[in-house]
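Subject: sequence -> structure tokens, single chain

Hey, anyone have a minute? Need the predicted structure for the following. Not urgent.
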Amino acid sequence: RGFTPHWFTEVVLEYEQAAQGGGDLEAVEWENVIQLTEQGEYSFDWGVLIEYSHALEDGHADKVEFGPLLQKDFGRQLWTSNLILEVPLSGDEGVEWEIATRLQRRIKPAFEPALELYLSKDELQIGPALLGETRTGKGLTVFSWQAGILAGLTNDTPDLAVRFLVELEFY
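Reply:
Had a minute. Here:
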């Protein structure tokens, strides 16, 4: 469910913690996903991401991220892939890009294993992930989570990264 049948929007707080220190709230983001095709209407389901990110740390620029979203059902498997461009709104940083892709096995909504790959100009990471979702209150509240361990495959990529996401949606 979304703001409209084809527009899904959310506010995200971005928090990051380095391996040897405390964490920081880095940004507040307004994320918008627009569904361009109905699920199953074509061979692939298409959408687009448009996001504004307001930096909370000194020296970091606000930015806009956008790009295509692609999804394909293979029975109990789900493949998703995103190509995202990140454009800073100030400073002298250039445009960055990232490709994220996931192959997910649908077992039950509360527990789904996956394999994830992230690629950017300088980094390449791959690793297993677990995802889950539960609905409460007659399906009007959704709690979802994702956790993954990513191995770095280039010299510029950290050897190991842990990814964790928790969402609580109200309708």
